[in-house]
Design brief:
The complex is a heterodimer of chains A (156) and B (276).
Chain A lengths: L2 H4 L1 H6 L19 H28 L5 H11 L2 H28 L21 H25 L4
Helix pairs in contact in A: 3-5, 5-6
Chain B lengths: L1 H15 L8 E8 L9 E8 L6 H11 L19 E4 L2 E4 L12 E5 L6 E3 L2 E2 L2 H9 L24 H5 L12 H5 L11 H12 L7 H8 L13 H5 L6 H13 L5 H13 L1
Parallel strand pairs in B: 1-5
Antiparallel strand pairs in B: 1-2, 3-4, 3-5, 6-7
The chains are: A mainly alpha (156), B alpha+beta (276).
Chain lengths: 156, 276
């Protein structure tokens, strides 16, 4: 049992007074690319969860017969349906590519070693490998979306 | 070797070079509220004269001395050593004594209390929660082999420079709370220890004089503990002392996940083998 739970003083102070909450996630640019990547990872995660729920709803229409399923499929063949699918392609590509980077960093890999910091301080963990990883994830997502758009909108 | 180091420092200096704008005066937009008295918050604008070397703390102290003596500020050393004057300057947590007015964009500087800390009055926040998280990490060397009761047996701990390098960076923490204020997880989870406390847990975990590593990993291995860090890196980007808390947290997690080898454990096993 952690000590802080037993401490009444802590309980008194933990009234979320002055906590930024979800609002603190806004304007990620002020803290650099790593914060932007974090924000996008969260946003795409929520987006993919919403898609997953929608996808379950979509495929469950099969239980109502072939007509219901065909009607549901027609919805995805509209320009709006294509746009949503494009977003899903971008979100899933970014989430996976950035997620692979995060698996390594969470295990302490690719971050550099602790040393003796000299002024002006340059954080070893926010190095070019991390920034390259973020850019690769963004470029892959853009490329996947472009390819997806070329396939989806070719018929239109 | 020396030339390489100088070249590296020059490269970093160039990267961190800030654009300076020289002005005669600046407007400070200061957040004012007495939370304890239940006052609602407001912003007061105060114009103060500035020089090229004026820091935000200098400007605030000028405003307090000549314009409005009721502005509440906490400060002490004025040289980024005590960590008392942390505040949100133009939306980013910084030390007021370490931030030059000439490096700020625009002629108005917005100054607010540190986010994620209980607010007391104006720019002053309550650090008791933050210090409690720090204390929970048992931030002191614990060595079961050292006999601290028998003075005759007391001796120094021998440590190699490379052993020191593993934790020295994290021991430069001045507990200013900027990382705690910038962390998006702290913003939503009150029980998350925050970057400062977690990096201190790593500082003692990796110290080869300490033998309480298991106890410390048990403290951070909690649903509100180290697993809530998602490596947004904001703590390291705002740290004024180059502590790089994000690095400490990820390295500690690497040990918990078994990605990194525990050299203390290896040395311990080696010692046992040698004895046998």
């Amino acid at each position: 049992m952690l000590q802080w739970r037993e401490n009444t003083e802590m309980e008194k102070m933990s009234d979320r007074n002055n906590r930024e909450g979800i609002k603190g996630w806004l304007n990620p640019g002020r803290f650099g690319w790593e914060r932007v990547a974090y924000w996008l990872q969260r946003l795409t995660g929520v987006g993919l969860l919403a898609y997953f729920v929608g996808h379950i709803y979509e495929t469950s229409s099969l239980t109502q017969g072939p007509d219901a399923w065909t009607a549901m499929l027609e919805l995805t063949q509209t320009p709006m349906g294509h746009l949503i699918l494009l977003l899903v392609i971008g979100m899933s590509t970014y989430h996976s590519a950035n997620g692979i980077r995060l698996i390594f960093t969470h295990g302490g890999k690719g971050l550099g070693k602790p040393g003796r910091p000299d002024y002006p301080y340059d954080a070893a963990s926010l190095n070019y490998r991390q920034k390259s990883g973020i850019w690769i994830a963004l470029i892959l997502a853009a490329a996947a979306m472009l390819y997806g758009a070329s396939v989806l909108f070719r018929g239109n | 070797m020396t030339e390489q180091i100088i070249e590296k420092i020059e490269k970093i200096e160039k990267k961190h070079e800030k654009k300076e704008t020289l002005r005669d005066s600046i407007v400070l937009k200061v957040y004012r509220a007495n939370r304890l008295a239940g006052e609602p918050g407001r912003y007061d604008s105060v114009e103060v004269p500035v020089q090229r070397w004026t820091t935000v703390l200098d400007a605030l102290l000028h405003a307090k001395a000549y314009k409005d003596p009721s502005i509440a500020i906490r400060y002490s050393c004025r040289m980024a050593s005590c960590g008392s004057c942390g505040m949100k300057i133009n939306g980013i947590p910084r030390l007021a004594c370490y931030t030059k007015v000439s490096e700020m964009e625009g002629s108005t500087i917005t100054i607010e209390p540190l986010a994620n800390f209980p607010h007391l009055r104006d720019l002053v926040t309550d650090f008791s929660q933050f210090f409690l998280h720090h204390r929970n990490m048992q931030p002191y060397v614990q060595n079961e082999h050292a006999d601290i009761k028998d003075r005759e047996k007391l001796s120094e701990f021998v440590q190699k420079p490379e052993d020191l390098d593993r934790f020295l960076q994290f021991s430069y923490c001045i507990k200013c709370g900027l990382c705690y204020s910038a962390c998006p997880t702290v913003a939503t989870d009150t029980k998350f220890p925050g970057p400062q406390a977690l990096s201190q847990a790593y500082r003692y975990f990796i110290d080869n004089r300490d033998s309480a590593g298991k106890g410390r990993t048990n403290i951070v291995d909690d649903k509100h503990g180290i697993w809530r860090c998602h490596f947004a890196g904001s703590c390291s980007s705002v740290c004024p002392k180059g502590v790089d808390p994000a690095l400490g947290i990820q390295l500690l997690r690497g040990h918990l996940l078994g990605f990194s080898k525990n050299e203390k454990k290896i040395a311990d096993l080696q010692e046992r083998l040698n004895k046998n």
